[in-house]
Specification:
The chain is α/β, with parallel strands linked by helices. The chain has helices spanning 18-29, 41-53, 68-81, 105-115, 117-133, 156-174, 192-199, 204-214, 223-234; strands spanning 9-13, 33-38, 57-62, 87-90, 136-141, 179-186, 245-248.
Length: 265
Amino acid sequence: MRNRFKDKIVIVTGAGSGIGQRTAERFSEEGAQVVIAELDKNTGKQVEKKINNNNGKAIFIETDVAEYNSVQEMVKNTVKEFGSPDILINNAGINVFSEPLKMSESEWKRAFSVDLDGVWNGCKAVLPHMLEKAKGSIVNISSVHGFQIIPNCFPYPVAKHGVIGLTRALAVDYASKGIKINCISPGYTDTPILERFFSTKPDPEKARKEAEFRQPIRRMGTTTEIANTILFMSSDECNYMIGANIVVDGGITLKIHENDDTGAN
């Protein structure tokens, strides 16, 4: 086990499952003190217990990223329990897919309150603490939806485009102050959210196999593969990386279309 993050204080939002959970675990494995900033009490406490049982140091703090006061209180408790945060991973997000003209106003607001406002709320709450130390790292989790449009997924890609724009704008403003802000765009990754998506299909197993076949790598990404990239971006190994968006998608966004059965281009 390496100790790239020994005694670093790391906040991971949405760390109760999927990419967030594995990211929190990987930070702990490399010596960090981790805050599980999660809305779901059950999953949040489970991850906290798992990390602590593996000789890590983690606390669960119930957090609704859509509410700035909740995020601010979480950061306040982080400082009280561990100290000033060194790293923030804005991972929490939800899928809202709808037909544009049939989507309700509440669904539009729900999507943006978590997927975009939630990222800004996290940044806004931790930046003052990082500015005091003149050092810090923020990694925002966007998606391949953040730069490619997949049909029938509105308004999710709109919010994820916004995450990349937010990352770039903040990165420029705070780079000279010792804070690096970057972004990662995962592709299909084996998570509970993806599993629930496949379960909505008439034949979930067939839908999964078809999705896997469309990937150049012929499989989904793992949460560990995504988490490892997040850790790299958070580390001092890439301090010259400012406002970057790293795509980790098995090559799927490199493809324009599938070839037909004749093999014609």
